[in-house]
Amino acid sequence: EKESSSSSSSSSSESCTYECPIIPATPITMDERISDIQYLLDEMKEREELKWNQERDDLIHEMDTLRQSNDALQQQHIHIQQTYDELLIKYNKNMLEHRNRMEEMQTNCRG
Asked: What is the pTM of this model?
């Protein structure tokens, strides 16, 4: 009988297209089941923690990149504002000089 059962189990395992579960010779106790479940839960928890840590690290990196971009944009804004102010001063100075020349020309024409 043992030979026939062992030959049938070997033929059934050969026909599996996936890894067949190992069936223990003795029944699993409740403590063993709880232990297995606890092990699986711990493994899942560890995987989730790794996943969340990776996501956190990715977000921290992204935030650092955004801060650097923001700092660069602020520097550009300051430079543009300074350039604008300088151009506005030059424009006003040119307008005053132009107005003064026009007034001088009108005075010379009258006089």
From this structure: 0.50
Three-state secondary structure call for residue 81: helix
Q: Which pLDDT tens digits describe the chain residue by residue (111 residues)?
A: 444 444 444 444 455 566 666 666 677 788 888 989 999 999 999 999 999 999 999 999 999 999 999 999 999 999 999 999 999 999 999 999 999 999 998 888 876
d(CA 12, CA 104): 113
Tokens for 26?
Answer: 């003795």
Nearest-10 Cα torsion for 32, 37, 39, 40: 150
Q: Is the separation of the CB atoms in 87 and 93 below 8 Å?
A: no
Please tell me the distance from the alpha carbon of residue 14 to that of residue 4, in angstroms, as a whole number: 15
CA 66 to each of CA 36, 56, 80, 98: distance values in angstroms, whole numbers, following the listed order: 45, 15, 21, 47
Q: Judge contact between 13 and 20, C-beta under 8 A.
A: yes
